[in-house]
């Protein structure tokens, strides 16, 4: 079978992770080139995993006729632009989330994709997590009947640096966006309306930067079900990632992953392990799984499992959540789309 | 020590339960009389547990100078009236929840109590449950630091009869009222505002009766924290009663009680017991514990652990929740109090 | 229905517990009298729960023609003697375990019971525990197919006083006897042979008193299955009481009971409650349940659920275990019976 | 840093696994050659992961002066011979377990290793499992004080084919050998004596082949502690791999790994996932971890974590277990060594 030749644009933490995952897991995929504005800084790393071509200009990848697909792992503000360029060049595209913070830019990018007829997948990796995937499958197989209530607990182990907060697009677009995607994924329904209670309980500096760090977000879904997300930027016990889907025939929950199942019974109590702390560790396998499906979509010429619409919708919900917080009222997603 | 002499008004399910709990657990308390409009129907039962005086008119209890305290276990619409009468007669009062659905009636009753200077406790028994009490104590001892998010899952095993639904005051005042109390109890804070998403997903007949059966209720607390309650009238796997309090130093959760800890590993999976199904079974010990504190308050002349205010506030929140559902907006509790 | 009139012989901790359980739970049972060598010391307690007749001589109970049944709760060395006397007087008998440490004395007592045709139940209360009963029922209903391996973990929270150790009959007859009963109960099979590894790891004083405090005891059952019991006199985290029955179609386990289901996630870890510490607390309900069945056996004239043979067999196994430890070899139960 | 050049002898299931793990995980290790008696059958696979040299004669590896270390993954009866040959050629050796079933052959091999001064590690991969390693570390850090009782539950999901049973060396040397190693690993002590109860409860054909399929194995350790292993060749619910170490300051347990943490609450019960079914899946990461330590031992010139003695001792215990079963008595390990 002919190998898929890919180029990776952006070699930060996530770009490197994808590169290494590809080298270690996909024999039928070849990383022909990688581009990063700091090309010289990644040279050694790239060579060590067998990548020969290292560019500072992403266009060297986009213009390479041998390259079948690109992974866009650069900074968020470049995602839409690079998507458009890559689509025009006929490359299949795996784009890290979010596509953009601006709805029109996203739509522009998705139109370019559609016009070019290339595959396009957004990096909502959590859909490929063993726990959430299992919930998804059980819901689809009717194990809980019709979904009535979806609950997502999503708490970071520690707040990001304030410099990051300032450019993050705000908690709803930076962190909750994954949870909005999870609600859509697990419920199989679009979101109709959102209402937010949020505040600054973790760190006043986050508030000074114009953001919030704690939130309870209620959602009304088009299929009649309801959802609620609770977020915190700081759970001292680790990265807390749980969901529950409750329905007419039962309920499914998933709890946190831990490093081991060891339980110590001693005078102080019965003590088990804290949740895995770091998201790259917690969601390790999901990053491989999402690429597996992306490459399979290319090979079999089928629709990727996370589409452009899946990239757009959580941004719309995030923007509606922002508006809800500002205007202290429930906000319909259609208000944002308009 | 002198025995406390009590009278019980109302011998339905809960009145009988209290009577039997007293006989079996409180050597220093004597049930001098019980009153029920169907006095003849409870005669045999009353005798079997050693209660000699059975009246059809509650005033026979209220007018008995030997009786120190009354337990008001009659139908909700009589609670306020009987409270006023008992207070005027100088009896200490244990009143089942809710005091009334009407705020002014509640206030009237509480004024009578205050004027008389008698002890008054409301039957929010869940505060005395071993699980929730443990959470309460751990929060008070600072185990999770400052509370940021309180989550209450409260789902009935099956919907009540439609005839009951019609006179129940609506789900928020009938069922969620316990959860509103739980939020106040665990957070140590008053509620400032409430926002409701609710609908009819369990049984259309409930909708036809003007009520809802599924809800996600967000609350903003005066101490800056947030809370969320999710309710369903029908969890097919049993009575689902869980809480979580998340704060600056950690999180406490409690899960459901089961009949045993047996776990069967077999070809079908690893199967453990469903939650206890019936609320009287689930909260069995809490009904004894609440009376223990009530009698102790009388004996030691101290404030009972669930006060008149604790009886009033959840009704206010429930009414605000109703208004939020009707008006599709967040409603401040102060709007109801006014 | 005519009340069952009973007398209680011995008002130590367990005698008092039974008395109070009867007063609180069995309306159809009347404690007509209680006897204790220190009659004067229990007088106030007896009156407080409504027992009028308090004797220092147990024969005042045995000779009372109105008394239908006796509960023998006196010291172990009197069990067989009182059983014989009560049987001769035609009383039904509930006897605390063990009947005796001497096999011939036990047989003598059981012969007297048989001759008199009275009901006889031994106080192996753990059979009535909600967890172990559930395992028993699931095994009987074929949930795990044929039993292959039975595992019993039984560890005390702290070693008994050395004075008690000296007269206890040794750990196997004092503590493990319950576990031997549990193996018979759960497997539905007699024990054929036993092999013991045991030593003194908790407290040298126990060794000096001629006993052991830690043991791993293997058993070969007549139905072909195997069992293993592990004992310790000191589990610092509480009273550790677990079983597992593994068979051809699966496995059932039960874990420890705790005061609450509260789980604290904090920087130190994820901490849940320790097992209940005190056996009277842990097995609280089982003491009521065993009497319920005893009284039912009397009323319905059926066989009690724990028979004389059930009282004898664990003593035989215990003696075989002792012999195994002394002679460092597997010992057949038939060697003891002979 | 200079790459470690290795040769793999034997390309069955485990040889292939190691090869792929090395390619995917160890950049500093190069598989220079692989040898298998069916060289032609593995050619395509070898090429696909980049191994150029594929031999049918293992001596082509042993005689290659460029090769630093060999992985012996061939059939058990060749382990000792190949170890001797490799040692004489000055190669470091990673040898799959068991080294041999014959004690003298093992000793011969270990002498050759010692004489040559090469590194030698035995493939007891479970020591590198995340769960067992955590127990090991907690025990070493004194979390449970002095170990008193070690319990190992080890049950296969299904019995091996009868043809395999016949050449397996018997359950104790084929399956329990891992558990004997686990007891030594977790207790930090040698085993002094063993006593076995075992039988044929799973499949009569196993009995006809001269083996057993169910066992309870008690062990007396040199440090005064006791251990018990329970084995079954067939746990219908999956691969059951649990341990507990109980000591003077507490107890540590580990439970089974599952594919996800999903729990379904429905009318049938509260259902969670079965243990992972297949040992290669269950112990996946441990196979990488053991090689990591082996390569590190070579690079840093330190002792490997599982030594020749660690390879020898479990075989001795296994042979003592066999003898115990045959002679129906406890057998000292020293009886076998003599």
Most extensive chain-chain interface: A-B, 37 and 37 residues
Low confidence ranges of chain A: none
DSSP summary: helix tally of chain A: 14
Strand order of the largest sheet of chain A: 12-11-7-10-9-8-15
Strand percent estimate of chain A? 15-25%
Shape descriptor of chain A: globular
Which oligomerization state do the chains in this entry correspond to? homotetramer
Helix coverage percent of chain A: 40-55%
Radius of gyration of chain A: 20 Å
Largest sheet of chain A: 7 strands, mixed
Order of helices and strands of chain A: EHEHEHEHEHEHEHHHEHEEEEEEHHHEH
Average of pLDDT of chain A: 96
Q: What structural class should be given to the helix and strand makeup of chain A?
A: alpha/beta
Distance between the termini of chain A: 46 Å
Number of strands of chain A: 15
Report on this model:
- Four copies of one chain form a homotetramer.
- Chain A is α/β, with parallel strands linked by helices and 338 residues long.
- Helices cover 41% and strands 25% of the residues of chain A.
- The first copy, chain A, has 14 helices and 15 strands.
- Chain A has helices at residues 13-25, 39-48, 59-62, 76-88, 103-116, 130-140, 162-167, 171-174, 176-187, 204-208, 279-282, 284-300, 308-327, 333-337; strands spanning 4-9, 29-35, 53-55, 69-72, 92-95, 120-122, 147-155, 191-199, 214-221, 226-232, 240-247, 250-254, 263-266, 269-272, 331-332.
- In chain A, the strands form three sheets. A seven-stranded mixed sheet of chain A has the order 12-11-7-10-9-8-15.
- In chain A, strand 4 (69-72), helix 4 and strand 5 (92-95) form a beta-alpha-beta unit.
- In chain A, helix 4 packs parallel to helix 5, helix 5 runs antiparallel to helix 13 (308-327) and helix 9 crosses helix 13.
- In chain A, 58% of the residues are buried.
- The model of chain A has no long low-confidence stretch (mean pLDDT 96).
- Chains in contact: A-B, A-C, A-D, B-C, B-D, C-D.
């Amino acid at each position: 079978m002919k190998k898929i030749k890919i180029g990776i644009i952006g070699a930060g933490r996530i770009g490197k992770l994808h590169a290494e995952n590809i080298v270690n897991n996909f024999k039928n995929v070849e990383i022909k080139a990688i581009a990063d504005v700091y090309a010289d800084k990644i040279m050694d790393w790239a060579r060590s995993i067998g990548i020969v071509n290292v560019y500072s200009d992403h266009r060297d990848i986009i213009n390479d006729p041998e390259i079948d697909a690109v992974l866009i792992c650069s900074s968020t503000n470049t995602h839409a632009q690079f998507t458009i360029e890559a689509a025009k060049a006929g490359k299949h595209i795996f784009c890290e989330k979010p596509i953009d913070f601006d709805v029109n830019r996203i739509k522009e990018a998705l139109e370019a994709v559609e016009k070019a007829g290339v595959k396009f997948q957004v990096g909502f990796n959590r859909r490929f997590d063993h726990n959430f995937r299992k919930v998804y499958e059980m819901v689809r197989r009717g194990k809980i009947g019709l979904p009535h209530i979806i609950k997502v607990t999503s708490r970071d182990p520690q707040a990001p640096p304030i410099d990051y907060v300032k450019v993050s697009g705000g908690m709803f677009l930076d962190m909750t966006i994954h949870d909005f995607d999870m609600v859509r994924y697990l419920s199989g329904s679009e979101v109709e309306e959102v209402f937010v209670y949020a505040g600054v309980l973790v760190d006043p500096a986050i508030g000074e930067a114009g953001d919030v760090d704690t939130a309870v977000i209620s959602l009304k879904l088009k299929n009649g079900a309801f959802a609620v997300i609770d977020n915190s930027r700081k759970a001292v016990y680790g990265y807390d990632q749980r969901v529950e889907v409750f329905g007419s025939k039962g309920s499914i929950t998933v709890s946190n992953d831990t490093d081991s199942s060891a339980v110590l019974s001693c005078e102080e109590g019965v003590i088990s392990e804290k949740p895995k702390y770091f998201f790259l560790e917690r969601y390790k396998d999901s990053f491989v799984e999402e690429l597996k499906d992306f490459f399979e979509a290319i090979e079999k010429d089928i629709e990727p499992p996370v589409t452009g619409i899946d990239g757009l919708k959580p941004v719309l919900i995030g923007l509606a959540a922002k508006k809800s917080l500002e205007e202290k009222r429930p906000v319909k997603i259609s208000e944002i789309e308009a």
